[in-house]
Amino acid sequence: MSGGTGADADAVAPADLQAALAARLGHTFADPSLLDLALTHRSFCAEHPGHTSNERLEFLGDAVLGLVVTDHIFASYPHMPEGELAKLRASVVSAATLAEVARELDLGAGLRLGKGEAASGGADKRSILADAIEALLGAVYLDGGMAAVRPLLLSLLHDRIAHAADGPGGHDFKTRLQELAARHYEELPSYQLSDEGPDHEKRFFATVYLAGEAHGSGEGPSKKQAEQAAAHAAWSQLVEQFEDASSSGAERDASPSGGERKSYA
Predict the structure, then answer these.
(1) Structural domain total, the chain
(2) pLDDT tens per residue across span 197-217
(3) 3 state DSSP class of 247
């Protein structure tokens, strides 16, 4: 059954649904009433006077979401301009993205909705699911602080962040490095990967090799981001190297010993 649909006996979401959701989140609530509140839509409150909706938790969770994502992308993409960071954040915290996360968690099954909202498919409405995710983040923050909500949030979003960063508006330095290697080397770049840390907060480390030599290293919360960081380091170093070589060659060509005729005005 999708959420509470009328009787006062349904005023608390079924314990088994809450336990299953908490297990999927990887967070056990010290105060289970916070989870109840996060799952309570205003349509339920309209039919059950005396109950409080999740709107205040949603307000808090929206701020937590913005802070954690902003802090993460600021640290993970030190060379990304402010405008691109803003676009990346907007794509990750959008209602569409949050609703996708909610569906993956089967959050709709635990929502407490009014009869009319439940009958009209409210448990799968994008706006309701997105708001409920934000309320859930607010609940986790109140229950366990930033130490609890940050790893949870990044475990839900880090793949989407990496994908968005590598998509339109991102910086695909692996492709740039591959194109540069095709012009100057007889082989394509190869990457060596390692990782450390627990599954929910794992860090990946990459080193990129060309012609048997390491040319750049990087790290990130996903393999793709670590490889992108390593490729960025290698690409920047090689571009500077080739530009210096080109500049030195031009200076030699322009000198008298380089064979160029001096002009005497």
Answers:
(1) 2
(2) 887 778 899 999 998 899 999
(3) helix
